[in-house]
């Protein structure tokens, strides 16, 4: 355990931490877990690096851009570290797991490199640095991840991420996740349910279940447990209003799970299921394990059983060997499915993956052009679909004040539409009906039916 607060950076007697997270929801949850642990040890969270005794970056390695951004941030801290050598600088998460000791060689002023399985030991690691000096490396791969959390710490009081499994066994050819997050390990239903009940008792109304490949939930557990079984158990918790889950892999998404979703009142009508490409030849090279027709059939089945479901997706453009024809097939898939929203990325090789052995043969300019075309197409589709919502009443779980306009409230529909409207602050955490009267491609705007 860390001893009583006695850091004296710039004359202060308390301990402070600046924590910045890059990447996916799993990283955001790891940040919550880490900050909860540090708060229990007496740390106060600050929003500026130069106000902190400890500066931590929770990193992502899925794309090169995310890594470059972290190294840029680290480089900017050299002068601060030179002026205040007692400040601890740490790199956590996927990039730490992947690059390990090489981070110290590239950035000697970094004190801590903490991998994806070691963040639960963060207070102990910081104490080690304080007592014995810098360059502490903690990237053990066989460490059992402790997902116990302080349920009172979460960015949004009415919502929470909950890890139900970690790791991935799919080994898609472009993806670094199995190498930095390890193999799939599921938590028991009892363990997850206990955490969700504790969150609800603390005021949480909505949970999002997380797993790198959440459709494989149950692997390693006895009794043939499935994600549908977990959803059914959580659906019975009094006080819980909504349940979401991400991310779904099409090859592991079962029709039985879709039918289960359709009958559970608290499971939201929203499915994030990355297609990655609309070309069978690219999907095969990506080792995704399904065809475009299979993906289309799965979407049709979901819409048949859950008529108001919204579908979100991910796409990678510029994968090795992607022809103009392959790209046009992706365009057609987007036009046909009409996704609620999409995350679209340029391909970047990840060292250690199978795709890194392929020639990265597309010029960056071509990748950029394809990326922009898909972004513009999705923006157009989202705007057209959102316009259909004008004049309709939607139910919103109110999260609190809108970030864009503090005088208005913000929340989400069950289909994951962002809604901004005028209303009383005491609606936070409650379900409210909103009449939509204006939209953008990202947001619905409206007012409560009783308002003039």
From TrEMBL:
It catalyses: N(6)-dimethylallyladenosine(37) in tRNA + (sulfur carrier)-SH + AH2 + 2 S-adenosyl-L-methionine = 2-methylsulfanyl-N(6)-dimethylallyladenosine(37) in tRNA + (sulfur carrier)-H + 5'-deoxyadenosine + L-methionine + A + S-adenosyl-L-homocysteine + 2 H(+). [4Fe-4S] cluster 2 binds at residues 168, 172, 175. Residues 154-384 form the Radical SAM core domain. Residues 387-450 form the TRAM domain. It holds the Pfam family UPF0004. Belongs to the methylthiotransferase family. MiaB subfamily. The gene is miaB. Its cofactor is [4Fe-4S] cluster. Residues 15-131 form the MTTase N-terminal domain. The keyword Transferase applies. It is found in: Cytoplasm. GO terms for molecular function: 4 iron, 4 sulfur cluster binding; metal ion binding; tRNA-2-methylthio-N(6)-dimethylallyladenosine(37) synthase activity. It comes from Candidatus Brocadia sapporoensis. It is an enzyme of class 2 (transferase). Its EC number is 2.8.4.3. The keyword 4Fe-4S applies. Monomer. This is tRNA-2-methylthio-N(6)-dimethylallyladenosine synthase. Keywords: 4Fe-4S, Cytoplasm, Iron, Iron-sulfur, Metal-binding, S-adenosyl-L-methionine, Transferase, tRNA processing.
